[in-house]
Design goal:
Largest sheet: 9 strands, antiparallel
Structural class: alpha+beta
CATH topology of one domain: Beta-galactosidase, Chain A, domain 5
CATH architecture of one domain: Distorted Sandwich
CATH class of one domain: Mainly Beta
Distance between the termini: 89 Å
Helix content: 25-40%
Length: 1019
């Protein structure tokens, strides 16, 4: 509502308040309304209220919300009461505290955050003033703004707002965190405090943090020019009016959410509202420039701007309506305060104290004093708040309390760096890092970019993290370097960012450097330094590319401390919390990913990954070309990519208009996002030695097509991958089902593909094959062999597709090969072999021999099981989609039965010895059926994963009995723990010549056991 309109509609029944237009203070308009009130004054706004009850069931969860801004020159006692009336009868009300100065706002949802019951047709707002006299400025009143119910944040003015903060609590539970901090402070004051002297350690920590920032911003600091800084500073349009210095409104993009889109656009375009993140960046640049030049006018600019920001409401006790995602907005602001703290302490001590209190509040520092069971590190907090939390502790005045807080901070880190239960963040036993209820390397990396330096700051001091916490973080780092090649993670792990390159596509070696410094400082070895040296070694760039001065310095430093580049990881890695498997030989990586009823299939936002529905439908990507090896150099390119054809996936091929995600705000627990859950629990992998398997039961979601089903498995042995599909079914008679072998970028002049022994030289090519023994090769060193009659389609040339984020048409030149299962297939299947890193003609000649003498034998391929024997390796691999009982025993096949779905591999290591690996891939966060995910007809409906109560559950362990033909004795002790997957018991039945192995399966974990044949075993 315009303030000019508001002025005309205010009345004062008792003439105890006066109001007038004022230019002393303003937000989004050129003035505000100054109200001078007497004790107990009342004013009314006569205005029809457009409030409507929330009905639900739509695509938007926004609620009608009352919003306003108030300014006070000095704090007042008491509170305002806002009473909403209908025909002079009170319907609902709330109170607003006045103990503040500067600007404050509140977002108060009628149906949740007020006392009473709002009614449609309310026609007046009654504002009751406290029992004291005073003055305030009112502006930008909105009777019915539409607000996401997750975002209003309680603060010292409106404590009752959003009483049950859910998934965003790490941003918004500021009142709770502050109460915890104050309680800890009171407890400390009540008793004599004695702790190991941390004065020297505090100096070390502070110096390391300062050196970190100096190095981080060295190049930025060199480039700063006063004229450019002053021009940015001038955009705030500073004016003196009635002896007051005023400037433009400073707001985060989240605070502006209360305004209509057109008004937001107008405010920012005209410079009426300046972005808070940009303000933080300017403050950091001013701080860096001041450190370089020690200019007094620059110091005054810093002090003026940050005082204005504080006056705008970024102050202790204020939430500015919402604080969700504020860490990303304020990160550079916090760093500027730390860099300027020494100078502020001598020149503006009161300002520094106010800023310190603001940082304590906004970062929720009191979370370090919360009960241990509330501790968990969300990567948002790690990435944006953790350094500021340490910084503000170091700025504390009371030495004893500062030391206590430092130890509390270390204790909070230890408690938080634990394996989180269910889908909560952050760390998982297999090295996965969770955010948004799934393994999410992009967010995990951002968290580690802050956590690794933080661990270094504390390393070797009394506030150092525990050995267990070290181990958990090191595990995540080691696994990240395993599933990336060289630095890029596979596209299937990109979540809503399936980009070719840039942000959210690759790791940053800084995390290994700082963990290396931490290990060196604490005497924990050199593993992280060795990883860093490989990542920044000869394979990290073309030979002609010179490394930066900073990288060269770090390499020399680590080598001087005895580090040397590690060998490239090789073998097979299973990460079932990520529903993924990774296979490495030489310098190449093959990565596969699926999904299950706990881990969503894809993440789509309204402007991200709009066509990525199939990204985890058995997506198999090979990264092995280039120097350095990247997504692009290995053949992936988002521009022009056919989103139906992620390599390895089995899908229904759709027009892009039909493939585009229909993104809704499905409930109050989520935003506008699509993260669909299948109803199949079986998806995951297993490792045996350096080889492994991965399998999944694929079932499409009813939001699009739940007739789409398939049983898929992949067997990774050496430099070969065997892929099997069975029971591929769909009822879609208009669109065919396909399995993509490869889709790779074509460089001009390169050989796009090989078909049998023929090189396809034409840039534009289309062909079909329908026979056995087909051999194809892409342009990136990977060959494909179809031993049986298979209907293939091979296409090369220019293609177009919509951009994943905007839908705007993009294009590129690609080679693509798919298996055509036809429209509405019934129990279709496939079988093909990938030879990774093999010369096409050599591979072709090898396949001619395999046609006569295969290197594997398929014993079963149906809805119950995929069972394959690998002859040279003397290994049987079992994908048991359901409970299994052997019907016809094949030679050397000793697995007789399994009483529940599982994965198993058995290798004969010697005549009387076997190695067996086992996995129950069901993460089992719940058992039975989640009834809320189904409609009355029994079909799945879309539910946000955030709304599922089971997302907080620990994995439920269960026993699996595997019966082997023969009598076997375990070579290692049996486990008496059920904390991880293990062999619990072995029972022999000499009469039946059988051995029953009782495994405990939990967390999708793998276990390998060695067994020797008993002398009494019958052949």
């Amino acid at each position: 509502m315009k303030n000019s309109e508001l002025l005309t509609k205010l009345i004062c029944p008792s003439a105890t308040a006066n109001w007038t237009k004022s230019c002393d203070h303003f937000k989004y308009q050129d003035s505000s309304i100054r109200i001078d009130y007497q004790p107990g004054a009342v004013i009314e706004l006569r205005q029809e209220n457009a409030f409507r009850h929330f009905s639900g069931g739509g695509t938007d969860q926004a609620r009608d919300t009352f919003c306003f801004w108030i300014y006070q020159a000095k704090p007042q006692t008491g509170e305002l009461r806002f009473v909403f009336q209908k025909m002079e009868q009170s319907c609902c009300w709330f109170s607003f505290g006045l103990d503040f100065s500067g600007w404050r706002t509140a977002w108060v949802i009628y149906e949740r955050d007020m006392i009473g019951r709002p009614e449609e047709g309310m026609d007046s707002l009654r504002i009751e003033f406290p029992k004291t006299e005073g003055s305030l400025y009112l502006s930008d009143v909105q009777l019915t703004a539409k607000i996401d119910p997750r975002h209003p944040t309680p603060d010292r003015q409106v404590r009752q707002v959003n009483p049950n903060i859910g998934a965003s609590g790490h941003w918004m539970k500021l009142l709770h965190f502050e109460e915890c901090r104050k309680k800890a402070l009171a407890d400390t004051a009540k008793k004599a405090f004695s702790v190991k002297n941390l004065i020297k350690d505090t100096g070390i920590i502070r110096q390391r943090q300062k050196e970190y920032l100096t190095e981080k911003y060295a190049e930025r600091q060199k480039a700063l020019e006063y004229e450019e800084i002053y021009e940015r500073y001038s955009r705030y349009q500073w004016k003196e009016y009635n002896g007051l210095l005023t400037g433009r409104s400073i707001d985060s993009v989240y605070t502006l959410d209360i305004l209509p889109a057109e008004q937001r656009k107008e405010l920012t375009a005209q410079g009426i509202s300046i972005d808070m993140r940009r303000t933080g960046a300017l403050l950091l640049d001013i701080a860096l420039y001041y450190q370089r030049e020690k200019s007094e006018k620059i110091f005054r600019m810093y002090a003026t701007l940050i005082e204005h920001l504080w006056d705008q409401g970024l102050a202790y006790g204020s939430s500015l309506g919402t604080t969700h995602h504020y860490g990303y907005v304020l990160k550079e602001l916090f760093e500027s305060i730390f860099l300027m703290s020494e100078y502020l302490a001598t020149k503006k001590a009161r300002l520094l104290d106010a800023l310190r209190k603001m940082v304590i509040w906004i970062t929720g520092l009191g979370r370090i004093n919360c009960p241990t069971e509330e501790c968990s590190i969300n990567v948002d907090v790690l990435n944006t708040y953790s350094h500021a939390m340490l910084m503000v502790i170091l700025l504390g005045k009371d030495e004893a309390y500062r030391q206590k807080q430092l130890l509390d901070f270390a204790g909070w880190l230890n408690a938080s760096i634990e394996y989180a239960k269910g889908l909560e963040g952050t760390f998982k036993p297999d090295g996965s890092m969770f955010h948004h209820c799934n393994h999410y390397p992009a967010y995990g990396l951002d968290g580690l970019k802050s956590l690794a330096p933080l661990i270094y700051f504390l390393a070797g001091t009394a506030a150092e993290i525990s050995p267990r916490a070290y181990g958990i973080v090191e595990n995540a780092l080691e696994k990240m370097r395993w599933y990336c090649n060289l630095k890029h993670w596979p596209t299937a792990l990109s979540a809503r960012h399936p980009k070719t390159d840039g942000e959210h596509t690759h790791l940053n070696s800084d995390i290994f450097y700082y963990m290396a410094l931490a290990q060196i400082s604490s005497g924990r070895g050199k593993k992280m330094g060795n990883i860093y040296l490989r990542l920044e070694g000869p394979l990290s760039a073309e030979e002609s590319t010179k490394k930066t001065e900073l990288t060269q310095k770090r390499i020399a430093e680590l080598k001087a401390n005895g580090c040397q580049a590690e060998n490239t990881p090789n073998g097979h890695l299973t990460m079932n919390w990520a529903c993924a498997g990774f296979h490495r030989r030489g310098e190449w990586l093959a990565a596969i990913r699926g999904h299950n009823r706990y881990l969503w299939s894809h993440e789509s936002y309204v402007a991200n990954n709009l066509y990525g529905r199939y990204i985890s439908y058995g997506h198999l990507q090979i990264l092995g070309k280039g120097r350095p090896i990247t997504l692009y150099s290995s053949g992936y390119q988002a521009e022009g990519f056919d989103w139906n054809c992620f390599p390895g996936t089995t899908v229904i091929e759709l027009p892009f208009a039909d493939l585009r995600s229909k993104v809704y705000n499905v409930d109050e627990f989520s935003g506008y996002e699509e993260m669909l859950l299948t109803d199949e629990a079986f998806a995951g992998g297993l490792t045996l030695g350096a080889n492994g398997i991965f399998a999944m039961k694929l079932h499409g979601h009813a939001k699009y097509d739940d007739s789409h089903r398939a049983n898929l498995s992949s067997f990774f042995f050496g430099d070969r991958i065997l892929r099997l599909g069975s029971d591929i079914s769909s009822s879609d008679t208009e669109h065919r089902s396909i399995t993509t072998l490869f889709q790779s970028r074509m460089d001009e002049g390169s050989s796009p593909v090989f078909i049998n022994k023929r090189t396809v030289k034409s840039v534009e090519y289309f062909g079909t094959k329908h026979r056995n023994g087909i051999v194809l090769a892409d342009a990136y060193g990977n060959s494909y062999f179809m031993p049986h009659k298979t209907k293939m389609e091979i296409r090369c040339g220019w293609q177009t597709s919509p951009a994943q984020d905007t839908g705007i048409e993009t294009g590129g030149c690609f080679a693509k090969a798919v298996i055509d299962h036809g429209a509405a297939p019934k129990r279709a299947g496939y079988e093909y072999v990938i030879g990774v890193g093999q010369e096409p003609l050599v591979f072709f000649e090898q396949t001619r021999k395999w046609l006569e003498n295969p290197f594997y034998h398929i014993h079963q391929k149906n809805g119950q099981a995929h069972i394959v024997e690998f002859l040279a390796e003397k290994t049987f691999a079992y994908v048991l989609f359901s409970a299994y009982r052997q019907k016809i025993r094949a030679k050397n096949d000793i697995l007789h039965s399994a009483d529940r779905p599982c994965l198993c591999m058995i290798a004969a290591e010697a005549e009387n010895r076997i190695c067996l690996s086992f996995c129950d891939p069901d993460l089992r966060l719940y058992e039975g059926v989640d009834a809320e995910q189904y409609d009355e007809a029994g079909r799945q409906i879309e539910r946000s994963v955030y709304s599922r109560s089971w997302m907080h559950n620990k994995s439920i362990g269960r026993e699996t009995k595997i019966v082997l033909q023969g009598l076997f004795i375990p070579e290692q002790e049996l486990s008496d723990s059920k904390e991880q997957t293990a062999l619990l018991a072995v029972e022999q039945n000499p009469d039946r010549n059988e051995t029953t192995l009782i495994f405990w399966g939990i967390d999708g974990g793998n276990v390998e056991v060695r067994l020797s044949k008993s002398p009494n075993c019958k052949r």
